[in-house]
Amino acid sequence: QVQLVESGGGSVQAGGSLRLSCAASGRTFSRYAMGWFRQAPGKERDFVAAFGWSAGNTYYADSVKGRFTISRDNAKIAVYLQMNNLNPEDTALYYCAAGSPLFGRDYAQPNQYRYWGQGTQVTVSS
Hints:
Layout: E1 3-7, E2 10-13, E3 18-25, E4 33-39, E5 45-51, E6 58-60, E7 68-73, E8 78-83, E9 92-99, E10 113-116, E11 120-125
Parallel strand pairs: 2-11
Antiparallel strand pairs: 1-3, 3-8, 4-5, 4-9, 5-6, 7-8, 9-10, 9-11
């Protein structure tokens, strides 16, 4: 069992930065891949970034490549999302998730993640 709690959301102007944190509980945290997803009002939940449970492999949505960086700290049982050069299209509720995707293409699929946090709101104004 893994419980996830996100923090770090807020309101920023375009071009600004935020760092999201996801604190996890559970002894098996290091066995899971960790992902960030986001959902804007009236839209589907979209993949943002993921960090594999082994080899340190990372995955990013095309829309955030070069601007967002995902990292994890197995000692602190946490995962982070550094978001730079934010724009209004990044406005959404951001979710942290833990799961066991097998292949690279699976990391972007919400149904590959078993555990989810409650989300933290990010609002970017122009």
